[in-house]
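note to self — DONT lose this again. spent like an hour looking for the file last time. sequence + predicted structure for the chain T wanted, 139 res
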Amino acid sequence: MDLLKVADYMHRHPVTFTVDMPVEMAVALLIKGHQTGGPVVDTNNKIVGFVSEQDCLARMLMSTYHDQQSARVSDVMNAEVLTVKPYDGIIDLAQMMLKTKPKLYPVVDDNGGLLGIITRSDVLAAIDKELHSHYRRVV
């Protein structure tokens, strides 16, 4: 299982966001892309933050209660982003996911450029596929 790498299971074309994007637009993209969150990138495709459904929901509720103008992604995003590299192992990522909260991790190159995302479901699928391949060999 040490051979399972993030690069083999990541999504290479994730929904991304910009800091100046309205939260409503981010929500529409999350819904359309079936993502629970996603990386916020600058013009050089470097990660500057992460925005989740929960971040957006909290702000949209506050806006409806106070009849406020919408916020920008920069107002709700988390600037501290946990990322993984494409050469990281799936098992290591699974262990990390057990200890930390994110369900989705941006995958970055060694310069911090976004390459894709990997979700908890992707990690589960990778491990399941590997385990099933062992079961078939035994039978």
